[in-house]
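User: Here's a chain of 411 residues. Predict its fold as tokens.
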Amino acid sequence: MAEPSQKRQKTEEDADFKQINDFLQKDKNRSYLKMILDQINFGVGNTSVYFVQVRGANASVNSKFSTATIDADFIKKGQDQMLFVPLALFFGRGFGILSSLVNKDEVPEDMDERRALLGLIKFLERTAEQSVLLDRDKESAAALAIHLAQHLLVPLVPQKTYVIDSYSGLQYEKCCSVEHPMNGTEGDTSYGCPYGWHGRVDVLLMDAEIPLSVVNSSGVEGDADTASVVSDSSVEENESDTFSPDSISQVIAQTIVYSFVQHKKNPVSSNSMVPGIGICSNKMVLYLYDCVEDILLASGPVRLFADTKVNTRAIIILWLALNYKLFGNTTLPEYKKYTSKFHELIGPVTLKRYQEESEQPFERKLENEDFFKTHDDLEAKERNFGDDAPLAAEAVPKNIKTIPLKLLLGL
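Assistant: Prediction complete.
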């Protein structure tokens, strides 16, 4: 009985390799991905991350994520230049795997890495799946969270499952105008520190274990001067499609706490850098926090859609972040001195509580103007790295084992 099963698996693998190969043989696909990889390598085109320092926060008092307040600023290199590096410097393995595919026609030997790569290629190939993403007019923030989880995030992770916050009372059975099975379930998305920040998030991707919060500002009717809380994680804004100070504070708090939660679960892990994702209408922002090294990073807002298409650059950024357990690496030694000072701010007693008492699920009952303004301005800023700027290629490990596609296809 094992032989037919092995034969079927071999047939499926051959079909996967053929799909990857067919994708690459379309010249526009290869050349476009090469261009994006060059941008990611240098950190241009909104593919860099900025080092952030926390100067004040209500992290030492019992506070929900939705009421988190953070006074922060970007760490400066010299007098006025913000310190930033290519995002892929923290995802060297993923960058290296994608580079090997595009430049050498090679796929990783590791099966988990191979499945992750195949998920990206399949998503980029499926224009019908992408068109569904554009069908999201007048959605509430919580409904948009389900829509994006089902059609944007799940295709980019291997296990294809997520939990949606059951507290919001959504009609979960349907997420868009197209009838299809749902990959997620309603459940408890809470986590936090009993003596600090805690609450729920809109979506938890189960295999990736990444919190997602959506701030919806497009096509929402209501008083433009008010913000309504859908759950602890969804804030609806009616003024513009930029991130508000409240929503930025919320996503940062969720990301910081989730790093402590993950490190408590996996104390022997070599990398405690955990991503958190915030989405506001047509834009996405990514935060990364390492609770061991106390490093906090922020991307600039990245547009999810360009005209009537999904922004491929944003998809690759998401793919790297969602698969951080496969692709992530620790902060390079020369950057470890640029801490967020969050540990110092909350002090040793509260820090110990975050380290030892952060929990998931959460079992208990449940502003710096210049920083927030600069945060949204990052999208439009022109960047000049200089000769000493690092490249993402520097973080690519030397032990990535690949196999030529031609060999696998018997060509």
